[in-house]
């Protein structure tokens, strides 16, 4: 009885905590494989032996459903991501929008909008603020939200639009200063999960995540839950 | 200090690198030998082909391998027709990918080494009654020793550090296809820097000691005139 | 184990085109100027020149003909290359043992010790080739080729880098070797001394073609070949040991023209012996002389004379039916009034005779 | 067929690979020469160090480079002290990363080639009045030609296909640090497979022709005895 | 441009320990058995044995002493290695031009043509070393070393792979070279012939130590050195050309003991000439003989006698004050009743004389 589950990188830490709880509760072993959503989609299409998938967006789970490569009806939103403008330097982004408008920084890190849902959201937010064009030559793009965070964390980019789950623990920043972007600046970042094979323990795990205990853990890690 | 899963990943990496290097040497040696000796007019076409996989980014190479090995790809169908199952997401698949990707690092140094052995020692051995196979093993191999050392080191180290191909066709499944390079990457992505540092440091130290031993044993004898 | 061979190879400026036979035993010298194709011929016989067309039969075994070519490692041969070509990764002992271990025939464990001993390699056995002097390397290469007890021995100037003393040790052994083993030996050499001493037969190669072939003593006595006009021209005389003078440690050697006296008494009575007489060492007198240190004086008849440069003449004497070349000044020939048919005495210093 | 941005990425890749290879040859040649000739007792330590970057996954190596280049890293501090600015997200940074990562692929073949040249030709050249520098260029270099070819091909191709390091310290800025390998990767991740195929095919074809030319020019002369 | 040198090198089983001087011009032969250290000494002189301690002064320039060591490429020398060691990537022309282009002194464009011509390399100029025969490679190596016009020439058995005919062409040129250039030449050779012909001085090396050093003619005449007991022992006699016999193309050469008659008349009257007389070519008679082809007969006195093996004796004669070695059988010595002080005649075949 082992469960193999593919998980989008940004949800890795949270998924680990969920798995730990689940294992404690049921005695089932959960094996988590992390990767970018694009890669995992390709892998699943080519026969990857996962039983469930926690993607980083809704687009690719929907594609799978259309192609009939999953247990139909199992798709659901397990978390909703929030975008924060974050800098490890205390005080730098206390006044959120202002610093973006002033442009007193050399690099702003975002995730690649083509690949990462957080990147797409970042783009939408900057467009809403009317800054997307003017900031073009200061943008540095991470392939995924993890890499984007590293650009900022190592100080190579002064600030970045990263996932709230990366910088907030129980509502407080782990380090530095942040600005939680208003949710209306971008479309919601719906992170959806699907059951790929109708395997009993995988189904149980999805149920566990959607349940009370699961939602609490997800909330504590900086996501919103539907 | 090192989690069980990390140790498993390290062992898997060593197994993969060892096996890949072994296969590379077994495939690469006759190929390099042939390339070094052949007078075929279009030999250079093959030489160019061997180096070709290098120019693709590993993940992309991995993607095409995935397509080929997956149940709908040519290799996958062949395997299924033969009663086997798809090689994607298996250890065997990792080995195939690594072999393909590291081939030039083994073939090229070996080819150079065989070329610099020259014809004369082989001719002498033939006059002393050594068959082609015999003189290959008793003369060409030992004289090409520096080339073998380089090929082995490059092949082994490159496979240890390989990541893109392995991630793509392996699917990062703990205990099955999660190798140490992916494990470190996961930790970095999951912001578990501490853990990543420890494993990276351990891997570096281990590799350094290994390389040290290899190179030390290979020291040239002093006082040789040529 | 006689050898029949023919090879043809075209290499642009140079082409090889030879056909010859080697007698079943004894040394055949391959003699010719630098670049005439000696090494190429040896390589072709060893099967190392894939482009060479031709045929080669050793004893009853066809090694090569139009359709068939035995690969080198199946040819039972010993080959000493022109350059030592030792295996750099093996020490001297393992270089020598390399071929020996691969012999098809019954291993002669003693032959290793014998060649090591002969070539004075005891103290070098554990050295790597890079730690040897030039001559030492060449000795190892010779030992390695000899240790395999082959059916055909190909030697490409094996003694060139050796000093006289070492040569003097190895030459008799090579002689005894080919006598014992009764295999054909093809021996490239630039040194007439060595050829005269070692070889029974001679192949004269010029620009890839055989210009003459035959027994050494015949070829050396022919005045029409360039061989006769070299400073070290000599005559080879076949003799048989008749007995010894124990007081002075001398040997008597009989040939058709008389009896030689030779320093040393190693050879057993009755055994054959070959004498080498340099044309420069023969002098001619009209009368048999007394009170001279020269022991070998034979009545002779002038057979033929040929100018040898402008100041000298080469005279072929006949000692009964044994020809003997003799080089003297034109002045002496004139003063002695030499002409074909004239009866004279040939004086040969005994110490000028070689085995 | 090829978008403007892809062409720019290809040109940037060629520039990066070319420059990196040039620098690698310039750094690697003296290093390889020294390694091939030195009788220093602890030479093997340096040999092991050169091969070491290989064993880390490129992204992880990139991460540490990012740390080193960042404002708190040693290189970053040095740059700042010198009045320069950070090298992260610049072309120069890419070059540094690629050089570090591909160093062993250049040094090792060169070292072997120099070793097989042997001392004798150098000694002869010295007796003919050639200074050490002179004989290095007039004798050692031409005799080590096969090693240089291998080093150049491996170094160039490896940099063309390099991805992890470049991704990490480049920030994927179109026209500045977005190289072709990242562009292909992006298309694959974004499920734009068609476009990825075209570029990959183009890159492969181009590289194949390049390699073909190189190997063809390098054909051994026929008829040489040794 | 005289050379003062001393070298010490310890290599385990072998150690080199020599001190010597070379005269400012002329050829010094380095003679000794294989493995005695000849190559090592040459390498040390060229600065190629970094472990060798010692000193070396060429002319007024210190090349090496305790504190200082001129690097090889700054030493103006020509070195022919024991193995040809051509540059594989350069054709023959560029091999030869390599050193020439790097000479400090004024380029002698003609010297390239001269050496190419001398060594018969015209047709090979565009070939790569791998396309040459062994002897051809060696000729190129010699040409390459000669083309640099050095201050010191080091030759490690340069003629070993060459045939007699080619040697006979190159030797006189080497002679004329050292006469013209007046530089010291150190010449390793195993061949007494070459040594006798070329060398003025001799260094005898045994197991890394000098066992004798001095003018060739003195050393060759000493009965206590192993040199005297080799089959080709000879005496070198310094003479002066007195005149010619135009009818027979002979030359008259005077020395303290009389007048030699020599075939050929190339040498101008008054010029010095060196004669080589092999001990085997000298015979002894009690009376002056008539009616013989031998032209050179001199009154002589037996000076000293030494056993040479068991069957022979080596006799040193004095032709006035010119010593002459002569090897005869013990039997002849007894029959002629030779003893020191006895007056005899020495017969030398004129054709046995070499320049
Ligand atoms: N690298 C080495 N290590 C140990 N001994 C060596 C080394 N190289 C040479 N020798 C020894 O040093 C001695 C002198 O060698 P050298 O090459 O000078 O001899 P050589 O007089 O030139 O002989 P040859 O006439 O055979 O060329 C030899 O006994 C040889 O075995
Ligand atoms: N690869 C080659 N290409 C063209 N010509 C070659 C090649 N190898 C050798 N030759 C020529 O072939 C001829 C015969 O060479 P070979 O080596 O047989 O001569 P050799 O008689 O052994 O001379 P040596 O006494 O100098 O060793 C020479 O003229 C040489 O220049
Ligand atoms: O976890 Mo992602 O792939 O950056 O959205
Ligand atoms: Mg030859
Ligand atoms: Mg030597």
UniProtKB/TrEMBL annotation, chains B, D:
Keyword Transport annotated: yes
A GO term, aspect molecular function: molybdate ion transmembrane transporter activity
Membrane topology designation: Multi-pass membrane protein
Coiled coil: none
Keyword set, alphabetical order: Cell inner membrane, Cell membrane, Membrane, Molybdenum, Transmembrane, Transmembrane helix, Transport
SUPFAM superfamilies: MetI-like
CDD domains in the cross-refs: TM_PBP2
Membrane-traversing stretches: 16-36, 48-67, 87-107, 148-169, 196-215
Principal subcellular localisation of the protein: membrane
InterPro entries documented for this protein: MetI-like, MetI-like_sf, ModB_ABC
Signal peptide limits: none
Gene3D superfamilies the UniProt entry points to: MetI-like
Similarity annotation: Belongs to the binding-protein-dependent transport system permease family. CysTW subfamily.
Function: Part of the binding-protein-dependent transport system for molybdenum; probably responsible for the translocation of the substrate across the membrane.
PANTHER family named among the record's database cross-references: MOLYBDENUM TRANSPORT SYSTEM PERMEASE, MOLYBDENUM TRANSPORT SYSTEM PERMEASE PROTEIN MODB
NCBIfam families xrefs: modB_ABC (TIGR02141)
Record's protein name: Molybdenum transport system permease
Organism: Thiolapillus brandeum
Lineage: Bacteria, Pseudomonadati, Pseudomonadota, Gammaproteobacteria, Chromatiales
Automatic annotation (TrEMBL), chains C, E:
Residue ranges of every copy of the ABC transporter domain listed in the record: 1-232
Superkingdom of origin organism: Bacteria
Keyword Translocase recorded: yes
Keyword Secreted among UniProt keywords: no
Pfam families given in the database record: ABC_tran, TOBE
Record InterPro entries: AAA+_ATPase, ABC_transporter-like_ATP-bd, ABC_transporter-like_CS, Mo/tungstate-bd_C_term_dom, ModC_ABC_ATP-bd, Molybdenum_import_ModC, Mop_domain, P-loop_NTPase
GO CC terms: membrane
Keywords carried by this UniProt record: ATP-binding, Cell inner membrane, Cell membrane, Membrane, Molybdenum, Nucleotide-binding, Translocase, Transport
Record GO terms (molecular function): ABC-type transporter activity; ATP binding; ATP hydrolysis activity; molybdate ion transmembrane transporter activity
Domain Mop: 291-355
Protein name: Molybdenum ABC transporter ATP-binding protein
